[in-house]
Design brief:
The complex is a heterodimer of chains A (329) and B (345).
Chain A (H helix, E strand, L loop, with lengths): L4 E12 L2 E13 L4 E5 L6 H7 L9 E9 L2 E2 L5 H7 L4 E4 L3 H4 L6 H13 L3 H14 L5 H4 L9 H12 L6 E5 L7 H18 L2 E6 L2 H7 L2 E6 L2 E7 H6 L4 H8 L2 H6 L33 H5 L5 E4 L2 E3 L13
Parallel strand pairs in A: 3-8, 3-9, 6-7, 7-8
Antiparallel strand pairs in A: 1-2, 1-4, 4-5, 9-10, 10-12, 11-12
Chain B lengths: L8 E12 L8 E13 L4 E5 L6 H8 L7 E6 L2 E2 L5 H4 L6 E4 L13 H11 L5 H14 L16 H13 L5 E5 L7 H18 L2 E6 L2 H7 L2 E6 L2 E7 H6 L4 H9 L10 E3 L26 H5 L5 E5 L2 E3 L17 E3 L6
Parallel strand pairs in B: 3-8, 3-9, 6-7, 7-8
Antiparallel strand pairs in B: 1-2, 1-4, 4-5, 9-10, 10-13, 11-14, 12-13
Classes of the chains: A alpha/beta (329), B alpha/beta (345).
């Protein structure tokens, strides 16, 4: 499979009053057609910034972006705003975390979905509205025709998120970026929304970049995972490989911290990761996880480990990988 | 000081109704946030109270700590009925019950230093001299994994996890018999959450308090609790030991909730009940069983008759559902299951 989307040595820096903030330091990954790729990591690791760089949704003022983003071989970082507008919603679309703030409260949801269709497919208002109804049926909204006339505040959180998904897939995009799409939702609602994303994207052949902090969600829906720490990918693998044998000490720490995993191993103590995430102010040539890592040696502090393939399609940036607690495996 | 042998907390028929509606439009209705809750907590026990947003679980916590006055029902704290006590009579009892809130950013006064924040419960009751208070504060901070010198810092200098440790230190400095923890780790990243949950279990071991642990996260509740109560729309629908709840959940809502929780293992077969519809509003509680609008196995009786929380199958397993059978247990909702796993290999 040739890659649909390639992110190549992406780096994003924000200029602030307190100096530059290195949000993303060096990210490379590829997305295959029809695949669901999860970017996972804790707050501040740069996962959202990485994803928002793809359709260039970051502010241009005070932001420096380096590296390349290619969609079907076409370079996106150098596109003019007009070309980007033609691209967004049609080839790449986005579902945000908080559906209330990303829908316009002053228009009915039918009109908002139809607007995307009118703009990109040149249909008239009637035809576009009919399509909007069809989309609402697809995302599992009952009584879709009547719901088209509802305003966002008349819908529940789960329904709003379904509307956002309907809008995002309206023009059959190649790539859907979903930024914590279920984090604001209750667990019984989340299950339904995740299922819509999965089945709909399978059906339409849409590839998905799913941003989440929840390894449970990753295991539920993703095909492949990139684990991020401090602006870099520390591990990349298929979901099965990552969960069967996590390699990077940080990934291991995250998994050990999950109550569900402690319960399965019969432990009444969760694994903790000591210390704090480093402030994103500089980028020394060392492993950024070393200060918090039980396996760290002088090697880790002397030079940054490069990402290498240690098993089939399983990449890790660590000198001491292995999924056994004692070290190399 | 109440009886030592019995439960630390006994709640019966607790209700809290709020007035809703718009005065401008002349409409008014009652929001039945808590609508008949029964629960009890034994000494040293952690009771997990789990439910989705809007089910009333936080309001239960606020009633139990008397931060809000219940509409009706009884709350016995260490044998003393506190639901109707006037504030001045409640005051001396406040040493026995403390609360930890979800958001450590808004629950600590930004203008007070950490030492004063943690010492506040002592100062409020005019206890000890200032130097003695500070010694106790230092001890409490160390127990919660902070350095005693943290005393002189301010909340904005600390991380979220550190702030939650401060909130725990403040809650525990009077050695309360009951701690209400309202989503204490939900605002934190998973690795920080792990540290706070470990700390809570450790401190419970050392100081032997009981805890009402409120959370929406099933895996957290399963990890930390001895017993669990599941709440839906103002009512407890199931209450039992942790093992019972997870091995043989009986209420259809509990079954659906368990099956909806994401499992961090891609090899586990997804065998999922997807509930249809949304949580009804607490201002318009459905007649009959309040879960019948979303229940995949509801029958006619469920639409008219409100089930009571009762011990049909075992003494320590309470369920509010008409369909629970003394022999076969809870109804089988698997007919409504949707199995799927079509991911690319």
């Amino acid at each position: 499979m040739s890659a649909l989307l390639e992110v190549d040595h992406l780096a994003v820096t924000f200029d602030t009053e307190d100096g530059p903030v290195l949000a993303v330091k060096d990210m490379s990954f590829t997305l295959n057609p029809g695949e669901i790729l999860a970017l996972v990591g804790e707050s501040g690791c740069g996962k959202s910034v990485t994803a928002m760089s793809i359709p260039a949704l970051l502010p241009t003022n005070g932001v420096t972006r380096r590296g390349a983003v290619r969609l079907s071989g076409r370079e996106l970082t150098t596109l003019a705003e007009r070309d980007l507008e033609a691209l967004r919603g049609k080839e790449i679309s986005v579902v945000f975390q908080e559906p209330m703030t990303s829908l316009n409260p002053a228009y009915t949801v039918g009109k908002q979905i139809a607007e995307v269709i009118q703009r990109h497919q040149g249909l008239n208002r009637r035809e576009a509205l009919d399509q909007a109804v069809e989309l609402l049926v697809k995302v599992g909204i009952p009584d879709a025709r009547r719901r088209c006339a509802s305003y966002p505040h008349q819908l529940s959180g789960g329904m709003r998120q379904r509307v956002m998904i309907a809008m995002a897939v309206a023009c059959d995009p190649k790539v859907l970026i979903a930024d914590e799409p279920t984090t604001a939702l209750d667990v019984t609602i989340q299950a339904g929304v995740l299922e819509v994303i999965r089945t709909l994207c399978r059906e339409l052949g849409t590839a998905v970049v799913l941003i989440t902090h929840d390894l449970g969600v990753v295991a539920e829906v993703a095909d492949r995972v990139v684990v991020m720490y401090a602006g870099r990918a520390v591990e990349q693998a298929s979901v099965r490989s990552l969960f069967a044998a996590p390699q990077h000490p940080y990934t291991l720490g995250l998994m050990g911290a999950l109550p569900a995993n402690a319960l399965r191993s019969g432990s009444r103590r969760l694994a903790e990761i000591p210390g704090l995430v480093p402030a994103p102010v500089d980028d020394p040539d060392e492993c950024q996880f070393a200060p918090r890592c039980g396996r760290a040696t002088s090697e880790c502090r002397a030079a940054r480990p490069q990402s290498r393939e240690i098993r089939d399609e399983h990449w890790v940036a660590c000198y001491h990988p292995g999924h056994e607690e004692d070290g190399d495996g | 000081m109440g009886d030592v042998s019995g439960d630390v907390l006994r709640v019966r028929g607790l209700t809290k109704h709020f007035a809703g509606g718009s005065r401008l439009r002349g409409s008014s209705h009652q929001v039945r946030a808590v609508d008949g809750v029964d629960l009890h907590i034994a000494p040293g026990e952690i009771l997990g109270l789990v439910g989705e947003s809007g089910c009333g679980k936080s309001t239960v916590g606020r009633c139990v700590t008397r931060l809000t006055r219940p509409t009706s029902g009884s709350i016995e704290l260490l044998g003393t009925e506190i639901s109707t006590l006037p504030e001045w009579r409640m005051r001396p009892l406040r040493r026995d019950v403390h609360i930890v809130f979800q958001d450590p950013y808004s629950s600590l006064n930004p203008r007070m230093n950490i030492g004063d924040i943690v010492a506040e419960p002592l100062r409020q009751q005019g206890l000890r001299s200032r130097s003695e208070r500070m010694r106790e504060v230092g001890d409490m901070l160390e127990r919660t994994g902070l350095r005693a010198e943290t005393r002189s810092r301010y909340p904005h200098e600390l991380s979220g996890g550190q702030r939650q440790r401060v909130a725990l230190a403040r809650a525990l400095i009077r050695r309360p018999r009951l701690v209400v923890a309202d989503e204490p780790a939900s605002a934190l990243d998973v690795s920080v959450q792990a540290a706070i949950l470990n700390l809570l279990l450790e401190l419970r071991q050392q100081l032997n308090f009981s805890c009402l642990f409120i959370s929406h996260d099933l895996s957290v509740v399963e990890f930390i609790s001895d017993r669990i109560a599941v709440m839906y729309l103002g009512r407890i629908v199931e209450q039992t030991t942790r093992d019972q709840l997870f091995t043989s959940p009986q209420h259809p809502y509990t079954q659906a909730l368990l099956s909806a929780a994401p499992v961090p293992d891609p090899l586990v077969a997804r065998d999922r009940v997807v509930l249809h519809g949304d949580l009804p509003s607490a201002a318009a509680v459905p007649a009959g069983c309040r879960f019948h609008t979303r229940c995949p196995v509801a029958v006619d009786r469920c639409r008219v008759e409100d089930p009571v929380l009762s011990d049909v199958t075992a003494r320590d397993h309470l369920v509010a559902c008409h369909l629970v059978d003394p022999v076969t247990g809870g109804p089988d909702i698997s007919s409504a299951r949707a199995t799927y796993d079509d991911r690319l290999v």
